[in-house]
Amino acid sequence: MAAETELPDNPKTHPTSNAEKDPHDWTTGAEPMTGAQASYLKTLSEEAHEDFDPELSKADASLRIDELQKATGRGR
User: Fold this and answer.
1) Helices 58-72 & 35-48 angle (0-180, nearest 10)
2) pTM as predicted
3) How far apart are CA 39 and CA 10, in angstroms?
4) In which region does residue 73 sit, left (phi positive, over 0), alpha (psi from -120 to 50) or beta (all else)?
5) Which DSSP string do the residues of 47-71 spell out, in sequence order?
6) Which of 19, 21, 62, 70: CA 20 to 30 A from 29?
7) Residue whose C-alpha is closest to residue 23's, from 35, 39, 34, 12
8) Which carries the bigger pLDDT value, residue 75 or residue 21?
9) Most distant CA atoms of the chain, gap in Å
10) 3-class secondary structure, 32
């Protein structure tokens, strides 16, 4: 019978996982928002009767999405 080897911990299971990293700490956070972000942000902006800013960075778009999700009751 082969000896059991321990597998390394799955980093996604740790509370300090980068899945929860502050958007301003993203290495690509200053890049323009993605098409998916723009589409969802436009929808949320319309529902919240807020202006849509197409010039937001990835990080700022992510934060704005979080704000508008709270305002509209969508998402989390």
Assistant:
1) 30
2) 0.69
3) 32
4) left
5) HHT----TT-BHHHHHHHHHHHHHH
6) 70
7) 34
8) 21
9) 65
10) strand
